[in-house]
Structure to design on (241 residues):
């Protein structure tokens, strides 16, 4: 399965309609998009905590109205490096707008599954805004909701149609149990999805009566291939039945 993370961040400005269009033309199996909420409750595709990371603006997405966000160039900081090492900013002269979730849903075929990664807090208003868009587009059955913050799992419980990844904390706890106790606890819900980072170093501490044992968590499969080494860019996910 090929998943276009943030729409395909290496090829085009991330989380933009330009990136989404390129991913679809390359027949990706799934799109992973990042969502935040504007000050007037419009779900917007944007990942970093500050607008200066990708645009010519600054501050949080939540501090701007949808109309204000439309004045920003989501490709402002995007660079391309030529064979001779020269770095250019190709989208500073051809602006790329920050899309709303609604705009993205309008161009993504109903046959393409989507993972929506919830960023920024509080969770409840954003969950409400995202739920409104998914309801309008009859899209609950093709969208999975992910967040590293457990408050989003809680916020979406009032929407029974929502398909959720379990919280990252719960996943890490169960991976730690595999590494240290050699046991795999079942997910709290049989139909929940699980995502974990492929390459990020993580330290696990197991407490004993007479001391502690500290080590690096590393999980391998039956062929000796590493399944967990915890740095985030590539996420692995699956149905943890």
């Amino acid at each position: 399965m090929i998943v276009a993370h943030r729409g395909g961040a290496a090829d085009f400005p991330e989380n933009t309609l330009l990136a989404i269009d390129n991913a679809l033309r390359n027949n990706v199996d799934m799109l992973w998009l990042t969502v935040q909420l504007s000050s007037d409750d419009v779900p917007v595709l944007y990942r970093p905590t500050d607008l200066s990371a990708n645009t010519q603006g600054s501050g949080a997405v939540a501090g701007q109205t949808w109309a204000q966000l439309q004045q920003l160039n989501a490709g402002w900081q995007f660079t391309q490096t030529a064979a001779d090492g020269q770095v250019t900013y190709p989208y500073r002269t051809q602006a790329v707008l920050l899309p709303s979730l609604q705009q993205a849903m309008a161009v993504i075929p109903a046959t393409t599954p989507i993972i929506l990664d919830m960023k920024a807090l509080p969770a409840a208003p954003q969950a409400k805004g995202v739920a409104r868009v998914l309801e309008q587009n009859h899209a609950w059955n093709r969208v999975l909701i992910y967040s590293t913050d457990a408050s989003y799992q809680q916020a979406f419980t009032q929407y029974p149609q929502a398909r959720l990844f379990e919280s990252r904390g719960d996943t890490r706890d169960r991976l730690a149990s595999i590494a240290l106790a050699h046991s795999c606890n079942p997910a709290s819900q049989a139909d929940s999805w699980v995502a974990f980072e492929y390459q990020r170093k993580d330290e696990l501490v197991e407490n004993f009566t007479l001391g502690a044992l500290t080590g690096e968590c590393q999980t391998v499969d039956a062929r000796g291939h590493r399944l967990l080494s915890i740095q985030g860019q590539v996420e692995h996910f699956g149905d943890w039945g």
Remarks:
- The chain has two domains: 3-164, 168-239.
- The two ends are 19 Å apart (CA to CA).
- Confidence is low (pLDDT under 50) at residues 215-241.
